[in-house]
């Protein structure tokens, strides 16, 4: 999978259409479809923020439905943290409590 394919897969997995996503991140649709040979660092940062572009390499297996779902949730919590930091902390804290509870039951 080349870089453009990875962006396309993550974009679709996150429910973005090509034109909608290009507009949201401030580039042309052609730019996202690989009609350019370079990409600037600011665009990479936005792609990582919106899609978790680089976190998927280290943490998630793109062939695993569970990992894809988890990756989407991570992106949603990151976005929630930007918009509503207290709500994001609440979600994370409750997830930690739930994990501890489940582990204590086994």
TrEMBL record:
Residue ranges of domain HTH cro/C1-type in the record: 7-59
GO MF, one annotated term: DNA binding
Xref: InterPro entries: Cro/C1-type_HTH (IPR001387), Lambda_DNA-bd_dom_sf (IPR010982)
Domain of life (superkingdom): Bacteria
Transmembrane segments: none
Name this protein carries in UniProt: XRE family transcriptional regulator
């Amino acid at each position: 999978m080349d870089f453009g394919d990875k962006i396309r897969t993550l974009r679709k997995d996150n429910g973005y259409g090509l034109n909608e996503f290009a507009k949201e991140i401030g580039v042309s649709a052609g730019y996202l479809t690989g009609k350019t040979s370079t990409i600037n660092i600011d665009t990479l940062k936005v792609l990582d923020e919106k899609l978790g572009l680089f976190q998927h390499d280290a943490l998630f297996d793109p062939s695993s439905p569970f990992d894809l779902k988890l990756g989407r949730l991570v992106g949603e919590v990151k976005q929630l943290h930007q918009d509503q930091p207290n709500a994001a902390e609440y979600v994370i804290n409750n997830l930690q409590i739930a994990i501890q509870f489940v582990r204590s039951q086994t």
